[in-house]
Amino acid sequence: MARLKKAAEAAKQVKFGGTEAYGILVQAIIPPVIEACVGDAEKGLDSFSKLGDTVTEAVRTAAQTYEDVDNTMADLLKKFEDAGIFRW
User: Closest Cα partner for 45 from 74, 88, 10, 21?
Assistant: First the structure.
């Protein structure tokens, strides 16, 4: 997710200022269109980065839950074995 965060930060820094390169007739059209696209890309990258963080946290939580359940079951089976209820 670090790469997505870097891409989102880079997108926030990119601005298409200056209109000299477009000529007088299109300078009111092209820069706003480009800015709108960059803004959408910035929002998309930021949202995707947040989604990645959320999924990462969910996977970590699930892994911890599975580990906790596994340890609980191992302890329970050990108690059964120690009590002579069944043997492996």
Answer: 10
Phi-psi region of 23 (alpha: psi -120 to 50; beta: other; left: phi over 0): left
Residue 87 lies in a domain: no
Output the pTM of the full model.
Answer: 0.53
pLDDT above 80 (res 44): no
Domain that holds residue 67: 2-82
Q: Which residues contact 40 (CB under 8 A, 6 or more apart)?
A: none
**Secondary structure (3-state) at 86:** coil
Q: Does a structural domain hold residue 63?
A: yes
